[in-house]
Write a structure and sequence with these properties.
Layout lengths: L15 H6 L4 H11 L1 H11 L4 H20 L4 H9 L9 E4 L7 H8 L5 E7 L19 H8 L3 H8 L17 H15 L4 H15 L12 E5 L7 H10 L4 E6 L2 H10 L10 H22 L3 E5 H6 L1 H12 L11 E2 L2 E2 L26 H21 L4
Parallel strand pairs: 1-3, 1-4, 2-3, 4-5
Antiparallel strand pairs: 6-7
Length: about 400
């Protein structure tokens, strides 16, 4: 069970936040509650072990940034809203969450689902998490709906709406992304008012209802949808996050792509060279092991609601993998599932290696050939047993 979102308001009784609030500066706690609201404050405390003036300032800057973005979109809001009222579809489908460590094919899989008529495919990485994108959000139902929205809101859409979507920070190609943050907020709040007595699931349904309608040039908005597909790296690595996800979506699915560590490390090592997150091979492999052991744990804890796919199969047997996942999600197989797209337009692979063409990069399953002999030996010694164990739970062909 997810113990972070109890039936009583957080901060009362013997809840973890109430106990923790006794251990921090009471003035800082009250300031955080005043500036950020209860949901954000309690998420900071539970996830990061406390709340400080620096964290309050960082979160306040985020709130200011998104509120400025809302104000910029207010001028045309009523005109846009009037045109949307006659074409408004509540989104109540569960989420099929794609989650595992970075550089393992999550972006590719999310782009393969784009355009399927029975899927609402989230167009970017899903970043409703707080205080980090890989932390499932904790909502306090005693708060005002405005606070729920500010916690969940993915402020990346503000830049993407102005400049267009691009698959990463270095890509020059951008795709049109016509999105109104102000419309999303208005639709969310009105949906909440319409529901009345809300549950946690109602809040998420209202959020996605507003999100997909506020995405104005979404070519796949209409039609009956069976799932929302969305990718967030590492979100399912913590047991409490997986528990919270399935508490909200007991009918949801978790799809994890596991990549051979000998193919994964060369890609991870080359990625994000400024932060150098995977520079040290031992530290990098420890992260791979932690994530893969979490995949094994999630499969054991949640059974058939968790599906494990080999990255190399996704690359080399794309049609077979997507046909299997179609059956898994109960959607009709379609040829659109074998070409990665953004809102129907072909998109280049999100790879650490140089590519010029869109589509699936077959060489991605051969990165092990770039390893030095001592690197290959170390990877085998450190990860071999766990890799074989997770393959035992993966889809077989």
């Amino acid at each position: 069970m997810c113990v972070i979102a109890p039936a009583i308001p957080l901060g009362q009784g013997n809840s973890p936040v109430h106990i923790m609030s006794d251990r921090i500066n009471p003035l800082t706690y009250r300031l955080a509650r005043l500036v950020l609201g209860k949901s954000m404050t309690h998420s900071q405390m539970l996830v990061e072990g406390g709340v400080t003036l620096k964290k309050i300032r960082r979160s306040r800057l985020r709130l200011n940034r998104i509120r400025v973005g809302f104000r910029k979109g207010e001028s045309d809001l009523e005109r846009i809203y009037d045109s949307c009222k006659t074409d408004f579809l509540p989104v109540t489908a569960p989420v099929a969450l794609i989650s595992q460590i970075q550089r393992s094919g999550g972006t590719l899989l999310s782009r393969l689902f784009d355009g399927h008529p029975e899927i609402h495919a989230h167009p970017h990485e899903l970043k409703i998490g707080y205080p980090k994108k890989y932390i499932w959000p904790r909502l306090d139902l005693s708060e005002a709906p405005q606070r729920w929205f500010e916690l969940l809101f993915e402020d990346d859409v503000i830049e993407a709406a102005g400049k267009g979507y691009r698959k990463d920070g270095t890509s020059e190609k951008r795709f049109p992304f016509d999105f109104s943050a102000s419309l999303q907020r208005k639709l969310f709040l009105e949906r909440i008012r319409y529901i009345g007595q809300v549950t946690i699931r109602d809040v998420y349904d209202a959020y996605f209802t507003a999100y997909f309608r506020a995405w104005l040039n979404n070519i796949n908005y209409r039609g009956g949808k069976k799932y929302i597909t969305a990718f967030t790296p590492r979100l399912a690595a913590m047991d409490i996050n997986a528990s919270c996800f399935f508490d909200v979506y007991p009918d949801g699915r978790l799809i994890s792509v596991v990549r051979n560590p000998k193919n994964w490390f060369p890609s991870a090592h080359r990625h994000d060279t400024e932060k150098n997150k995977y520079a040290d091979i031992d530290a990098a492999l420890n992260q791979w092991l932690e994530n893969t052991q979490a995949i094994i744990r999630n499969r054991k804890n949640y059974g058939d609601r968790v599906c494990i796919v080999r990255f190399e199969d996704l690359i080399d047997k794309t049609g077979a993998v997507m046909e299997y996942l179609s059956g898994y999600l109960g959607i009709e197989y379609s040829d659109v599932l074998v070409t990665p797209t953004f809102n129907g337009s072909p998109i280049a692979a999100n790879t650490s290696f140089s590519v010029e063409n869109s589509g699936i990069i077959k060489d991605a399953s051969m990165r092990h050939k770039t390893l030095a002999r001592d690197e290959a030996r170390k990877i085998e010694q450190k990860t071999g047993d766990v890799y074989q164990q997770v393959l035992g739970d993966a889809v077989k062909w």
